[in-house]
Write a structure and sequence with these properties.
Layout lengths: L1 H18 L15 E5 L4 H12 L4 E6 L2 H15 L6 E5 L5 H11 L7 E3 L11 E2 L2 E2 H28 L3 E4 L12 H4 L5 H5 L10 H19 L4 E7 L9 H6 L1 H10 L3 H13 L8 E3 L2 E2 L4 H4 L1 H21 L8
Parallel strand pairs: 1-2, 1-4, 2-3, 4-7, 7-8, 8-9
Antiparallel strand pairs: 5-6, 9-10
Helix pairs in contact: 2-3, 2-11, 4-5, 5-8, 8-13
Length: 332
């Protein structure tokens, strides 16, 4: 079953990148008056998403970046490219490696007049073991800090949706690589899931990115069942794009550059999938999206054993977040 699911996911990804052109956001979409946050906004998919939001008339875009100087350079480029007013784009500092930084960012966001969408684009792909806040870095950045941001912003997102009548969207990019995520580290009876993933000796870093994207789907599906329709959360797959995300793989494998040239989408095209997630309806709540449509995730998600792992992991995730910010579980 898992093998067939992996084959299906891989075949779909290759077919999509070779033969499917993602639709552009509809030109008659009017985002006037709306405010969006985009993390990892200074480059790649994050930047291109900001371009689309600007062209569609968003009132304000918060470009959340780790290095403010790079964010200001990206803002200048964005203003020149779109002709927007300087005041319509703000650059805020956000380091997903730091819980304190995530907390400060979320606290600052409480002062926004409204919040219509959050594109949690910041993420990493690495085969190198590194600790971030005492947790393996990709697990921390791609999963723990990302959902820390969600939980901290949840009250603001709900309040904004109630006052404006427009449900806030929280979008986390995903990947077809979740079809290839190994379950051995999740199914073992040795300790908790978090403990196993933080065991350097037994961790498989070559597929850790794949696994973090599977964990994102688990958490998104759980949160969707608990939000009571007050927040729309989804996880779209922009597919392989010519961005800097996989720079380690490119440097280590010369053949990967040829594959990228053949298969990878431009970051502009990939960003259409993310903007679609930000503009989509309630039918996408809790869903994995591919080619701008709801798409069935891997059997690691839909199978009965996957559903049990989903519940176990989400419980552990909430417990972890509670140690970072006491009382945060009440924001569910």
């Amino acid at each position: 079953m898992a093998t067939l699911s992996a084959v299906r996911g891989t075949a779909h990804a290759i077919y999509s990148n070779l033969f499917v052109t993602l639709p552009q956001p509809k030109k008659n979409t009017d985002l006037s008056g709306k405010i969006f946050i985009v993390t990892g906004a200074n480059t790649g998919l994050g930047y291109e998403s900001c371009v689309w939001l600007s062209r569609l008339g968003a009132e304000k875009i918060i470009m959340a970046v780790r290095t403010e100087s790079k964010g200001l350079q990206a803002k200048a480029k964005l203003l020149a490219e779109t002709g927007r007013l300087d005041t319509s784009i703000e650059v805020w500092h956000l380091d997903m490696d730091s819980y304190d930084s995530v907390k400060r960012f979320a606290n600052r966001a409480q002062g926004l007049e409204r919040l219509d969408g959050v594109l949690a684009n910041a993420g990493i792909m690495t085969r190198n073991w590194r600790l971030s806040e005492g947790i393996e870095s990709s697990l921390n950045v791609n999963v723990v800090s990302t959902f820390l941001l969600y939980f901290l912003l949840a009250p603001k997102m709900r309040a904004s949706g109630k006052s404006t009548g427009n449900l806030c969207r929280f979008v986390i990019p995903n990947s077809a690589l979740h079809f290839l995520a190994p379950l051995a580290e999740l199914q073992s009876t040795r300790g908790t899931i978090m403990e196993r993933l933080n065991d350097e000796t037994n961790s498989v870093m070559g597929t850790r990115y794949n696994l973090t994207k599977l964990l994102v789907i688990y958490a998104v599906r759980e949160l969707a069942t608990m939000s009571n329709g007050s927040i729309i959360i989804n996880t779209p797959n922009p597919s392989w794009c010519k961005s800097g995300l996989a720079h380690e793989m490119m440097a280590a494998d010369p053949g990967a550059k040829h594959a990228e040239a053949l298969l990878a989408r431009s970051t502009e095209e990939g960003s259409r999938a993310l903007v679609h997630g930000l503009l989509s309806g309630e039918d996408t709540n809790g869903q994995f999206l591919s080619n701008c449509q709801v798409h069935s995730p891997s059997c690691q998600v839909t199978g009965s054993w996957g559903q049990q792992i989903q519940k176990d992991f989400f419980r552990e995730l909430v417990e972890k977040l509670e140690t970072i910010q006491t009382g945060i579980k009440e924001n569910i």
